[in-house]
Design goal:
Putative odorant or sperm cell receptor. It holds the Pfam family 7tm_4. It is a multi-pass membrane protein. This is Olfactory receptor-like protein OLF3. There is one protein chain. The protein is an all-alpha fold. It has one domain (about 1-175). It contains six helices and no strands. It is elongated, with a radius of gyration of 22 Å.
């Protein structure tokens, strides 16, 4: 299942990169979601596989801290990314249907893609496209940076503890037991 997750998500990223028609904000989010999904699985599965094969089942405190940092951070990012994608679809669709449309023809897509609808407008939509990309990027990067900075601060503070026993206690306190 791990290999299916990794290969499937890398295939999604590859196809989006190769097809220029998929270089839209929604597929930007899907690319990031695929990368986060692979990273999240990679932060957990290798250690789990080691536990299946090894007789000793413990995790060293530093490895535990690293696993927690990545799994909690990436898990949180995945949920925020999904929320941002939903919000992006809602706001973009609302703004898009206020544009004057040149035609009433069917949209040649499997699902209602915002940029496909925007391109049917009779006015210059470059500012709309920039606004969609900028707002989506801000909504994505702000939570990511906040989570990353908080974990960097926590880990750097723990690593400043001089005694090994003190660091182990601090890491153990941060870990779920």
């Amino acid at each position: 299942m791990y290999l299916v997750t990794v290969l499937g998500n890398f295939l999604i990223v590859l196809l989006i990169r190769l097809d220029s028609r998929l270089h839209t904000p929604m597929y930007f989010f899907l690319t990031n979601l695929s990368i986060v999904d692979v990273s999240y699985a990679t932060s957990i599965v290798p250690q789990m596989l080691v536990h299946f094969l090894a007789e000793r089942k413990g995790i060293p405190p530093v490895s535990c801290a690293a696993q927690l940092f990545f799994s909690l951070g990436l898990g949180g990012i995945e949920f925020v990314l999904l929320a941002v994608m939903a919000y992006d679809r809602y706001v973009a669709t609302t703004i898009t249907f206020q544009l004057p449309m040149c035609t009433n023809k069917y949209i040649d897509h499997i699902s209602c893609e915002v940029l496909a609808v925007v391109r049917l407008a009779c006015v210059d939509t470059s500012s709309n496209e920039v606004a969609i990309v900028v707002s989506s990027s801000v909504l994505l990067m702000t939570p990511f940076c906040l989570v990353l900075l908080s974990y960097i601060k926590i880990i750097s503070t723990i690593l400043k503890i001089r005694s090994t026993e003190g660091r182990e206690k601090a890491f153990h306190t941060c870990a779920s037991t």
